[in-house]
Structure formats: C-alpha cells, structure tokens
C-alpha cells in the first residue's frame, strides 16, 4: 500500500466532517475474478474483475476498441475508432492516412495485411509446478489462478513492438513464460504467497498493467533462474483505503490502475497529478517500480516526488518506515499524522 499526496481539483467536494473516507469494506473482494477468455484454470483465462472489459491480446488497449481502416464510396481511406468507449469513437478521420504516409514515407494499403494473423492459442512450455503446488496456490489466491497459455503469455510479455509481433506470429517457443499466474486479493494473501514461494523454492514476479516496452516482465532463462516462476497479478489490490484532504494524502493499494485511481480521487475533488501515457492500464505499483514520469511532471513532479511512504511484503514480513504507523509489521495507519521529512539514510521509498 502506498501513501501519496493529493491536490485539490477544480470541482471541490466535501467528503466528510473529519476529512477522511474509508474504503476498507470494498465489496469487490467478495466477487470472483472475471474470465477474459472462457474456461477453467486449465482451459480458460482469469483476470481481475476490476478490468471492466476484455483486454486485447497481441495489441494495445481493450478488445472493444481499435482503429479500423475502410474505403468509402469515393475511394478515400477512412480511419475510425470502433466501439463507443472514447469520445473519438465512430468519428471519420479522413486525413490520418495521408498524414502518416507523408510523415513516414510509406504507402498504406487497406487490402494488405500488415501484421501476421492472430494466434488464438499460443504454444509455450507446459507449467512445471505440480498439481499439489497449484492446489496450495488456489487456497491462497482468492482472486484465481491460471495456467492457461494466454494468461501466462500475457504476463510474460509487455507492449513493445517485439512483444506484439511475437504474439501475432506465434513465435514464442524460444521464450520462457511464468508457470502460473495468481491474483491475490489483499496484503495478507500476498504475504502468504511470499512465504509459500520461499518454502517451495519458487520465484515470484509481480505484475501490474503489463504496459512496459523494455521487456521488464520477461522471465529470465532457466540458465539464470532455474526455479519455477509465478506471476503475481496485483490488479485486485485496487482499493483507495482512505483520503485525508486536509493534509493532501491518500492511502492506496499498489494494484490500482491510473484510470481507476483518477476516477476514485475525482469523486472527492482531488487529484494525484501523475499522468503517464499509459495511465488507463498501468498501475501505481508499476509506476513506483519503474520510477515513472508523466505529462504533468513540471507541476506535480515524477512518481518519486509524489509518493510519501510505502509498505512492502518481504520474506520476513512487511517492511515499512513506520511513519504514521501503529507498530512493528503493522499495515494499519494512524490517520492523525501527516508524513514529515526524516533522515534515516537510504529509505524504503527510494529503494522501491
């Protein structure tokens, strides 16, 4: 969970007499994960219920959105955005193709396939974790587990051109992917996963929005990492735990996407001010892990300037600076305190 400053937006909203709003009883934790591709753990895919729609596989964005190129009755090449998710959806963009051709010195032919055909069921190595191990994971991760090839492939890939082209071509046999994907629902489940992985000699790799273009979610080859690999999808940890408007602080779980965070904070007339290009899909935890920057950095700063404190799950428990905390390994926060400057050498926030 992260503590971050917030700023008042133009639409001021009174949130409560004591200026705190708690979301700890979020009923999302009682709902099952929504399948992105139908089926069970072995024959279908799971994804956090927070993703209101299906994500495209082998492309950026949601499955119900995307640019479509058609030829009208006058022979013009018209681009439009399918679906109704965005304000631009359905509007004809008649000048886009000529602009791209002129700027990139290429010819765009609507009748020519520019990318390989989509591979519906990518062929990758089988899961190396035993059935008994998978059962242990099932008992911990209430959000679901998956060994389906699409889930494993997506969680071992990013959004670079190389990633998308490999998925479209189905040329994934030489790549290593997570053996299983799990969706924990809260900090306690993450702690249990870390403890189980230590006992079973498994490797855990956290996964946020998967928007990286630097191969950050690629699994290391077995020569470097021989242990089975588990991808821990954090998107079910997506709650705004409290908002302190007076001190300009909010306590937020790491798996929340930028779009959801902005939407939640907007209800109370505040903003965190961080707006990367990937804000719709990337997560707070991913921003911290990659030291992300955004389009409003000149006013609000980069993510390291915005985050005030972090709590991190480790093998020996929960790590924290305990600024505003209530005791050793505690995840509770004393909401009467803001976070002042301290001098303690290398702090946990900087390490993360």
UniProtKB/TrEMBL annotation:
Keyword Lipid biosynthesis recorded: yes
GO cellular component terms given for this protein: peroxisome
Source taxon at top rank: Eukaryota
Presence of the UniProt keyword Metal-binding in the record: no
Known pathway: Glycerolipid metabolism; ether lipid biosynthesis
TM ranges: none
Subunit (UniProt): Homodimer.
Name of this protein: Alkylglycerone-phosphate synthase
Binding site for FAD: 277-283, 290-293
Major place of residence: other
A Pfam family that the UniProt record links to this protein: FAD_binding_4
Enzyme class: transferase
FAD-binding PCMH-type domain: residues covered: 174-352
Enzyme Commission (EC) number: 2.5.1.26
Lineage of source species: Eukaryota, Sar, Stramenopiles, Ochrophyta, Bacillariophyta
Task performed by this protein: Catalyzes the exchange of an acyl for a long-chain alkyl group and the formation of the ether bond in the biosynthesis of ether phospholipids.
Family in the record: Belongs to the FAD-binding oxidoreductase/transferase type 4 family.
Matching InterPro entries: Alkyl-DHAP_Synthase, FAD-bd_PCMH, FAD-bd_PCMH-like_sf, FAD-bd_PCMH_sub2, Oxid_FAD_bind_N
UniProt keyword terms in alphabetical order: FAD, Flavoprotein, Lipid biosynthesis, Lipid metabolism, Peroxisome, Transferase
Cofactors that this protein relies on: FAD
GO process annotations (BP): ether lipid biosynthetic process
Gene Ontology molecular-function annotations: alkylglycerone-phosphate synthase activity; FAD binding
Catalytic reaction equation(s): a long chain fatty alcohol + a 1-acylglycerone 3-phosphate = a 1-O-alkylglycerone 3-phosphate + a long-chain fatty acid + H(+)
Record localization: Peroxisome
């Amino acid at each position: 969970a992260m503590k971050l400053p917030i700023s008042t937006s133009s639409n001021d909203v009174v949130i409560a007499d004591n200026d705190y709003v708690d979301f700890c009883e979020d009923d999302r934790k009682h709902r099952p994960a929504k399948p992105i591709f139908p089926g069970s753990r072995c024959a279908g895919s799971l994804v956090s219920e927070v993703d209101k729609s299906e994500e495209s596989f082998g492309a950026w964005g949601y499955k119900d959105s995307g640019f479509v190129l058609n030829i009208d009755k006058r022979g013009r090449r018209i681009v439009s955005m399918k679906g109704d998710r965005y304000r631009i959806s359905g509007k004809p963009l008649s000048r886009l193709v000529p602009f791209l051709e002129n700027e990139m010195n290429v010819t765009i032919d609507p009748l020519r396939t520019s990318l390989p055909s989509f591979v519906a069921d990518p062929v990758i190595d089988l899961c190396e974790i035993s059935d008994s191990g998978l059962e242990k994971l099932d008992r911990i991760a209430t959000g679901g587990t998956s060994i389906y090839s699409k889930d494993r492939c997506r969680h071992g890939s990013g959004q670079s051109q190389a990633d998308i082209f490999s998925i479209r071509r189905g040329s994934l046999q030489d790549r290593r992917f997570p053996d299983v994907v799990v969706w924990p629902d809260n900090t306690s489940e993450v702690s249990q996963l870390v403890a189980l992985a230590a006992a079973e000699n498994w490797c855990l790799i956290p996964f946020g929005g998967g928007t990286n273009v630097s191969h950050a979610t690629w699994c290391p080859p077995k020569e470097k990492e021989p242990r089975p690999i588990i991808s821990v999808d954090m998107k079910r940890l997506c709650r705004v735990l409290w908002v302190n408007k007076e001190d300009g602080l909010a306590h937020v779980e790491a798996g929340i996407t930028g779009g959801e965070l902005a939407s939640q904070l907007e209800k109370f007339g505040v903003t965190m001010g961080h707006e990367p290009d990937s804000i719709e899909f990337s997560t707070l935890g991913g921003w911290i892990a990659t030291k992300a920057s955004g389009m409003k950095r000149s006013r609000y700063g980069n993510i390291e300037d915005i985050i005030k404190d972090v709590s991190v799950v480790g093998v020996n428990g929960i790590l924290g600076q305990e600024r505003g905390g209530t005791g050793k390994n505690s995840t509770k926060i004393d909401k009467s305190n803001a976070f002042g400057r301290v001098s303690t050498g290398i702090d946990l926030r900087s390490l993360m």
